[in-house]
Amino acid sequence: MTNEEKNTKDELLSRLEIVEAMLREGRKSTSYHGWAFVLWGVAFLVAIGWMTWLPNGHLAWVVTMPVAAMISSIWSSRARDCNMKTPVGRSLAAIWIAVSAALFMYMFSVGYSGHAEMHTLWAAMETLLGVANCASAITLRWRVQMGVAILWWIAAAASCFVPVALVIPILSIATLTGQVGFGLYLMYCESRDRKKAVHYA
Amino acid sequence: MPDLPELDPVIHGKLRLATLSLLFGVDAAEFTWLREKTGATDGNLSVQLRTLEESGYVTCEKNFAVRKPVSVYKITPKGRKALRAYVQAMHALLKLADGLE
After folding, report:
1. Considering only alpha carbons, which residue of chain B is nearest residue A79?
2. CATH 3.40.50.2300, domain B10-100, yes or no
3. Fewer CB atoms < 10 Å away: N or C end of chain A?
4. Could A25 and B37 be called an inter-chain contact, meaning their C-beta atoms sit closer than 8 Å?
5. Which residues 43-82 of B are in CB contact (within 8 Å) with A?
6. Are B56 and B78 in contact (CB under 8 A)?
7. Model pTM above 0.80
């Protein structure tokens, strides 16, 4: 490749980077995903509550997770399509799809095989959620989400050491802050940026 | 020789590309928000937005907020289509360039 061809290629790559960077800015500023974090956080809390206090607790996750997935799917399909098919968009989708699939397979298999151990079961879930948030934070270069990832990992570590009775409260607190709290914060950022940037519903 | 995809000259300018990409991801955006995100000066950004408007890629609505004029920009369907086509053309050119290496 000649120098001129290399310069042209670098120029093209820099322009693609501009597109991705601006889409990232737009996505960060007006992310439409705050609702998803809140939805899944509420779903987790409902499942935890059902599992702990209501009859047929063994059905809690089997029922709530598919319902949440259905609601999420319907809501997403109705949302405005602002997804450009760029590597950044694909990366973010890949991260969350991969972790969700892994969580589903792991939780279902371990939960219903009779081999579940309370500490490691929930620690694994918290670890995977930390992974998804960390990968997303690195992709978006977003410190707040990195903080959420670290929160999930602290919960995962704590779940390994505390008495069994404290494992579910730790999961509940992590869910309340890392999912619901983060989701509400995202929705607040969206609303604040909408006032500055976006004027129409 | 393979047909080289053409890059839309309206979008090819870096500031216009950045602005259109920002608008792609939002419903609408104020001038001040676009200026903050692109780091452009008022004058330069105004000129580039006017070019995009004349090409039919964005629309501009002038409102008033607390008696202050506010310009709000929106990408048009034509603008979305043009940006998608531009990105596809870039990918095609990069593939060709990789083939030359």
Report:
1. B27
2. no
3. C
4. yes
5. 63, 72, 74
6. yes
7. no
Phi, psi of B59 (to 5 degrees): -120, 155
Give me the residue from B22, B72, B94 closest to A22, CB to CB. Answer: B22
Interface predicted TM-score (ipTM): 0.85
Beta bridge partners of B29: B73
A196: nearest CB among B33, B93, B97: B33
State pLDDT tens for residues A8-48.
788 888 888 888 888 877 765 444 578 889 999 999 999 99
Of A103, A135, A1, A126, nearest in space to B97 by CA: A1
Q: What is the C-alpha separation between A41 and A36, in angstroms, rounded?
A: 8
* Rg, chain B, Cα only: 16
Biggest alpha carbon distance in chain A?
72
Chain A residue with CA closest to B30: the answer is A197
